[in-house]
Write a structure and sequence with these properties.
about 240 residues; five-stranded antiparallel beta sheet
């Protein structure tokens, strides 16, 4: 079931379409018969890991499945030295002024990841860049859902709760997936990843928001590295 689930998630992230047993059999060479794959997909559905998508005969991974994939199956792609140097150089000139640093950090993160990027502090400041990435996302076709997502960006109370969760739960990463975590069916197509940073006087989160099909194995290590880089600068500056 784990091999089948991993293949379903990989196919869904890559192609964005519901996945059927025939695709798994032909494309992923799992070594199981078509009947076995179908039977195990039924079991995965009963356990809440895959769900039926509209009228297609295929299945898509649930939020529960994506979370399991991130925590147990995913292999994070290590940043290259070139990528690390690029992140450092991109914000180094802004390191003497906190507001400029955090605003520029959101811009750099959006450019590097191709996602809407946010930086939020416990002092009530929200910096974001790359909102157009959500508007261009082919996975989010309904305009009302895009409007809802964009309106959330400036909802201080929502992001403040994420900053507080990161601190209180002592997590370095928080994954928000669809309706389950955003508590709104209009947000079912979306996911958000957030990492914390902090110094002596200021704490916050650095995150991205986009489709649930985002490439977690690439984005998560970038977020972790960049949030640690921000924290080191903030600590060094005594903020």
């Amino acid at each position: 079931q784990i091999d089948i689930l991993k293949s379903i998630i990989t196919e869904y992230i890559n192609e964005g379409k519901p996945v059927g047993s025939e695709v798994l059999e032909k494309k992923y060479r799992l070594g199981f018969s078509p009947a076995t794959i179908r039977n195990e997909m039924v079991e995965l559905a009963k356990k809440g890991y895959i769900i039926k998508n509209y009228f297609s005969s295929g299945r898509i991974p649930s939020a529960k499945a994506i979370r399991f994939y991130i925590n147990n199956l995913m292999e994070e792609k290590k940043l290259s030295t070139k990528e690390e140097v690029s992140y450092k150089n991109s914000i180094w000139d802004e390191k003497n002024e906190l507001h400029k640093l955090l605003f520029h950090a959101s811009k750099v993160l959006s450019e590097q990841t191709g996602q809407l990027a946010l930086v939020v502090t416990d002092k009530g400041h929200i910096y974001y860049s790359g909102a157009y990435h959500i508007m261009e996302d082919k996975d989010v076709e309904q305009l009302d859902k895009v409007k809802e997502a964009l309106s959330l960006i400036e909802e201080w109370d929502f992001w403040k709760s994420i900053v507080e969760r990161l601190r209180s739960e002592n997590n370095d990463l928080l994954v928000l997936l669809g309706e389950e975590d955003f508590k709104d069916e209009d947000f079912d197509p979306f996911a958000s990843l957030a990492c914390k940073f902090g110094g002596e006087h200021v704490h916050g989160m650095l995150g991205v928001m986009g489709s649930k099909r985002m490439r977690y194995q690439l984005l998560i290590p970038q977020l972790r590295y960049f949030s640690n880089l921000l924290e080191s600068i903030i600590t060094e500056q005594g903020w």
